[in-house]
Amino acid sequence: MPMTEQATGAHHPQPRARSGGSPSATVEHLTGAQSLIRSLEEVGADTVFGIPGGAILPAYDPMMDSQRVRHVLVRHEQGAGHAATGYAQATGKVGICMATSGPGATNLVTPIADAYLDSVPIVAITGQVASAAIGTDAFQEADICGITMPVTKHNFLVTKAEDIPHTIAEAFHIAASGRPGPVLVDIAKDALQAKTTFSWPPVMDLPGYRPVTKPHAKQIREAAKLITQARRPVLYVGGGVMKSGATAELKVLAELTGAPVTTTLMALGSFPDSHPLHVGMPGMHGSVTAVTALQKADLIVALGARFDDRVTGKLDSFAPYAKVVHADIDPAEIGKNRAADVPIVGDAREVIADLVQAVQAEHTEGNTGDYSAWWKDLDRWRETYPLGYDLPEDGSLSPQQVIQRIGELAPPDTIFAAGVGQHQMWASHFIQYEQPATWLNSGGAGTMGYAVPAAMGAKAGMPDRTVWAIDGDGCFQMTNQELTTCALNNIPVKVAIINNGALGMVRQWQTLFYNQRYSNTVLHSGADTEGNEAKGTRVPDFVKLSEAMGCHAIRCEDPADLDKVIAEANAINDRPVVIDFIVHEDAMVWPMVAAGTSNDEVMAARGVRPDFGDNEDD
Fold first, then answer.
1. Which residues pair with 27 in a beta bridge?
2. Residues that are catalytic
3. Residues 352, 353, 354, 358: is their CA dihedral positive or negative?
């Protein structure tokens, strides 16, 4: 991404270098590697997730002596990247991961792309072959800057030891400011080994990088007028509101206007689920009320959201009657998918605070919106099409019930991290999110394997909070080795495996769109050539596997044991806990808008098309 591009959401304040030198700066003679560790200490880093290897090895020697930077030795670099993301999402600080050159660096590509799409501030530090060998196809050489260019906010190749301090300062500043995102710093091995001088703070030189945070007053006034003139407004809240720390301001704006609020998958918790103005999550698996509210709105106020395809469905049929106010810190997002009638570039916190004042001014002049008829419709839809599920007729565990009870029995302030697929959607629906930064998931990339390492990172950053990973049996098998990391580093996460023996969301699509031909979605016991399951022993045995990695492990198959098992997990805090929940394989995620179709075609359940009682749906 060019240095001038900014993006959705804004940053949490970070300890970082000041621009310009300081006459009081102390100068020390160090190696480049020592300079790197000192720089990390100075920007406020306290936890690094990584694995050493040849090119990065010089940095690991001085890190051993650091009293301020803790290194967590992961089992796979992908785990390091997702842990850095979970740490950042839970704490609001920059997450840090470290890997060696070549395959170590390329193993970070997936979590870097994941962080990029969800605007998460992480800094990935990689070793590189010696500068003289760059471009020669040397052992374990990969052009990681070139490889990650499309999925980093910016990246640096450092070949001189003296460039390390200012590069680290700039990397953390870029990652955390404007639209947050991942930054990669690739350092040649000889730069780490060379002698240099170290002084702090360094001079930062970032020409062209000037994130706009203060919105234009005229645009704010126009937006306030539209809000008070509208009859069917919706506040469409995205992850940028969470990243800017604007949740308190959002609540004030919502209650001031009385408009319904819908929070995207990345924004869950930014507005309390239990609040009467909250109509749910929009999108492919959003609540009927949220999906329909956007479709029938006459004004959409998008705050730190990007009109993602999972929210809009078929774009040309999305919200056909709505004017759009689009506020975002990244000007590239405004008008990208949906034209904005009132574009506002700025930090979500400043935008919402100014909107509150502007709406108050409109109210003082006697201009208030009348949304009474709108709320009659919304309340009717909420009452007619609530989120719900049926218990399996055979008496087996319902995955929705499992997740709901985990949420209800969890201690206050629990952080939930979800993998990707059915269990992710059920966790978004059936756990109540009342506070920001209590819901972590991979939204834009949809990365299977995210949950366990992200939960690890969240727990490392917030050790006094309970952290539950809600994972599927497919996702769990991608990164479960990080449970060993958790066990050995006193990071006692709790993991719920929603085990339906299949790649659940893919299987749901095969049920609905591929005539129940279950091609390569059965996980636990193999299948015959026709795709039929071969009943037998579950492979792997998740209880034995988890115990082998130092966890307390439990299997739960009977609904009568559900609360007891969850309580047992909540009571254990000296090691990781894994529960293998054997759930019914045919459970599906509803509501649903099929991919590529209009949100007007939302299905409340299988074969149940909502009737909104208006001419448009006849």
1. 199
2. 77, 139-140, 189, 505
3. positive
- 108-153 residue pLDDT tens: 999 999 999 999 999 999 999 999 999 999 999 999 999 999 999 9
Contact 369, 229 (CB under 8 A): yes
Spatial distance between the Cα atoms of 413 and 417, rounded to a whole number of angstroms? 13
Q: For residue range 427-482, list pLDDT tens digits in order.
A: 999 999 999 999 999 999 999 999 999 999 999 999 999 999 999 999 999 999 99
Residue 287: C-alpha distances to residues 232, 282, 434, 605 (Å): 18, 6, 17, 11
What is the pLDDT confidence band of residue 212, given thresholds at 50, 70 and 90?
Answer: very high
Name residue 414's amino acid.
T
Residue 613: band (very low, low, confident or very high) from pLDDT cuts 50, 70, 90: low
For residue range 192-211, list pLDDT tens digits in order: 999 999 999 999 999 999 99
Strands 195-199 and 27-31: antiparallel
Determine how β-strand 70-73 pairs with β-strand 95-99: unpaired
Residues with Cβ within 8 Å of residue 299, at least 6 apart in sequence: 226, 227, 230, 232, 233, 234, 322, 323, 324, 325
Are the beta carbons of 572 and 554 closer than 8 angstroms? no
Pairing relation of β-strands 342-345 and 323-328? Answer: parallel
As a whole number of angstroms, the distance between CA 35 and CA 448 comes to: 36
Residues 6+ apart with CB under 8 A from 137: none
Residue 495: name the closest of 463, 432, 543 by CA. Answer: 543
**Which amino acid makes up residue 518?**
Y
Q: Is 302 left (phi over 0), alpha (psi -120 to 50) or beta?
A: beta
Helix (H, G, I), strand (E, B) or coil at 591: coil
Under 8 Å between Cβ of 449 and 502: no
Confidence of residue 534 (pLDDT cuts 50, 70, 90): very low
Among 13-22, 58-67, 386-395, 509-518, the range scoring the smallest mean pLDDT is 13-22
How far is Cα 398 from Cα 582, in angstroms, rounded to an integer? 9
Q: Copy the structure tokens of residue 196.
A: 């240099």
From the number of C-beta atoms within 10 Å of its C-beta (0-12, 13-18, 19+), residue 617 rates as exposed
Q: What percent of the chain has pLDDT over 90?
A: 91
SS3 sequence, 4-30?
CCCCCCCCCCCCCCCCCCCCCCCEEEE
**H/E run at residue 113:** helix 109-117
The one-letter amino acid code at 369 reads G
> How many Å is the maximal CA-CA distance in the chain?
78
Q: Which helix (H) or strand (E) holds 390?
A: none
Token pair 């629906």: residue: 429
Which tokens hold the place of 263? 């929070």
State which H helix or E strand residue 461 sits in. helix 451-461
Confidence of residue 16 (pLDDT cuts 50, 70, 90): very low
